[in-house]
Known about the structure:
The chain starts with a strand and ends with a helix. Helix 3 (about 160-175) crosses helix 5, helix 12 (about 390-410) packs across helix 16 (about 530-540) and helix 15 packs antiparallel against helix 16 (about 530-540). The chain has 16 helices and 16 strands. The chain is elongated and about 100 Å long. A six-stranded mixed β-sheet has the order 1-2-3-4-8-5, with helices on one face. A two-stranded antiparallel sheet has the order 6-7. By secondary structure, the protein is an alpha+beta fold. Among the domains are: about 1-145, 4-Layer Sandwich (Deoxyribonuclease I, Chain A); about 325-540, no CATH class. GO terms for molecular function: catalytic activity. InterPro entries: DNA/RNA_pol_sf, Endo/exonu/phosph_ase_sf, Endo/exonuclease/phosphatase, RT_dom. This is Reverse transcriptase domain-containing protein.
Amino acid sequence: MALNVIEFCIEGHCELAAVELKLLRKRMIVITVYRPPSGNINIFFTQMTELLEHIFDTNKFIMITGDFNIDCSEESSIDTKRLIYLMKSFNFYPSIFTYTREFKNSKSIIDNIFTNIPKGEIECFNLVTSLSDHYAQISILRSISPMPDVTKYLYSRSFLPCQVTNFKIALQQEPWSKLYFENYTNIDYLYGFFQSILEKHFLNSFPLKKRNICISKCPSHINISKQTMEIRKQLKHLYIQSKNLDSSHPLRIQYQITKKDFRKMIRIEKNNVFNQKVSNSKNISKTYWEIINSHRNNSKSSNFIDTLQDNNGGITNKPEEIATLFNDHFINITQDMSVSHKAYYSNKGISDSLFMSPTSEAEVIRIINSLKTSNTAGFDGTSTKLLKACSSEMSKPLTYLINKSISTGKFPKQLKKAIVKPLLKNGNPNDVMNYRPISILSTISKVFEKVIYLRLYAFLEKHLILSTNQYGFKRKTSTIDAMFQLISNIVSDLDRKKNTIALCLDIRKAFDTVNHVCLIRKLQNFGIRGIALDWFESYLTNRY
């Protein structure tokens, strides 16, 4: 976990970075330091003193490592004495006693590791990397182990082709007679019957299996080619031969050229791996963010929440209490927000009313196939990938249910359920205020919604209800069009020597603060009335 040490950094004088690690016995703080040789050394010592006072904790192991540009081999130096005394006053002792930089017969210990870890539990030494005239410092913690990879049990389902085939056969053989022939108008009852049949075949075809999962905290590595490794060996050989030579010596020049080539090849190989991932991706933007997050060590697997701060300020690790804390927070997330619910809308009403025509099996199949393919599933376990594979088998009962929903003006209560997952925005992961909810709805719900959307959108377009200045959520328009219009207006005003002001607003929790009563009134004003309006009221109410 990164530690915030920005307040102690002064560029050009004292530059810092820090992380906090979890160990078996206690936590450990690792701080890296760089003191530019041209910086003010008094400012450096002032900032370091304030930093050490801030982070000092006898219950934590602390390592302070980096390039201090203070030669600890010169014991009589005033700056060396100041550094050693400062560190010892906080119980930190140096761990590097051999030269860390050798160049042209100049030898010094300007890199070091200061720590409060007992000497018997840590070993520190230099490593020749040949990538710099500084050696790397290595620390081995002997009896201190990091938190092991957390092995947990996960119950999951496999969706092998043979299992999907068995599921399709079961659906094909299902008569659905009770669904079609009994004269029920209660959509909740009808969908409940459909769901029970679907669930029976789903559980038989895709049983839950217990698996071990390992939440690894190690970042992924990129394998480099043999050619690059050969250059790496050559580079190390050249470094040893040329480290005491003048910069104009042919061997030293060859070393610098080889070092530049090696770094270039590493960059190229990394770029090739990333470009391959992007070129094979169906969602380029998402893939870019996955690559970025993998380097930030911010993968999805790290979203496991095992502790959370409770209402009394303590930390709980009980899953039931954590779930309750999130539930209470998400329920009340908008109650403290001051939002005006005055019904602002055009006084011009629409005399025509929306008629929601029934759907057909062909349309339902077409809608299912238009959904974005994903393995994500709602409470019923049915993903869009599985739904697409079984679109022909499920189209008839779904068509019947959707038409029944349209004719009765009711949306099935079973489809109002959602799996709510907390997503960390930023800040302290133990603070519930730093999370926002992500709701995962049933995939079948999306089919119902798309059928209604197509009818509503066609009605709004026909009566020119949508503003020409609206670019989001409209066909053939996007935020790119909005940006183009903005730039066009600015350029036009500049040509006419007019002043231009752009006011950019972002509505906080926009969807959470929509007043449903006001929304229903607007829909009624724009021609959504009768059973159609009943359907939208049913869709918006009693969600959980």
